Amino acid sequence: ITDEDLYQLELERVFARSWLLLGHETQIRKPGDYITTYMGEDPVVVVRQKDASIAVFLNQCRHRGMRICRADAGNAKAFTCSYHGWAYDTAGNLVNVPYEAESFACLNKKEWSPLKARVETYKGLIFANWDENAVDLDTYLGEAKFYMDHMLDRTEAGTEAIPGVQKWVIPCNWKFAAEQFCSDMYHAGTTSHLSGILAGLPEDLEMADLAPPTVGKQYRASWGGHGSGFYVGDPNLMLAIMGPKVTSYLTEE
Q1: Among 44-53, 79-88, 109-118, 204-213, whose mean pLDDT is lowest?
Q2: CB-based contact 92:113 (threshold 8 Å)
Q3: Cα 124 to Cα 136: distance, rounded to the nearest angstrom
Q4: I want to staple 92 with a disulfide (CB 3.0 to 4.6 A). Which of 2, 19, 57, 240 is the partner?
Q5: d(CA 251, CA 166)
Q6: Are 70 and 83 in contact (CB under 8 A)?
Q7: Is residue 149 packed enough to be buried (19+ CB in 10 Å), middle (13-18) or exposed (0-12)?
Q8: For the chain, how far is it from start to end, CA to CA, in angstroms?
Q9: Could you tell me the CA-to-CA distances from 140 to 83, 135, 219, 227 in Å, in that order?
Q10: How does pLDDT run across 235-247, given as a tens digit for each residue?
Q11: Which residues pair with 226 in a beta bridge?
């Protein structure tokens, strides 16, 4: 899974054609508020517009390919490339070119904006997609919304992202990091994933009221000295973790 040719194919087939989570709307509350992040290996700017919509565009100047914005987050009326001063508005449109008449007399600025992505949101989460032919976000998320609804907008105040920027550099293939959150529930009931379990439980239940999932059917696959599996036990706990359809399938006689 770490083959370089396969990785390049994943960038083209997966990251370039999927809806990718970029942030939360509370990170960019006011017009001009922005964050910078990545879609695959492509740097992008995510910025709130004057009409409250959100724009996502490639963070790369069309002149010499330099970064348009080098900060992690902030507020801006425009973005100016530090190399030759080409300026873009918050929607990513090229609006000013120094010495345009002398150096680029035939330049049509409307044709020289950075590549712009499709943008849609779900309960405050900001998603973007390079593929103009991809299905809409609601269709793409499908039944995964069951799990997202456990965690998002659980009160009238809604969900709010914690301010600030934190970054980790992990020397691994992207799938290794993803598998840490989907391969097993060994530590889910006590440590890092506990909040996710509790969010999916009925409000009148506590973890102490649930039977540990150690009996019933077992589906297990082992690799690299570690295993993962589904242990069928308390239906309430299973419902929180696996959703209604999977729970019904695994518990049917």
Answers
A1: 204-213
A2: yes
A3: 16
A4: 57
A5: 41
A6: no
A7: middle
A8: 37
A9: 39, 6, 27, 29
A10: 666 666 666 776 6
A11: 223
- Number of residues that make up the chain: 253
This prediction's pTM: 0.83
Residue ranges covered by each domain of the chain: 4-151, 183-251
The residue type at 62? R
CATH 1.10.3130.10 is right for the domain spanning 4-151 = no
Q: Residue with structure tokens 């049509």? A: 108
Does 90 have pLDDT greater than 80?
Answer: yes
- Higher-pLDDT residue of 20 and 190 is 20
**Residue carrying structure tokens 């989460």:** 125
Q: What is the pLDDT of residues 25-45, one digit of tens each?
A: 999 999 999 999 999 999 999
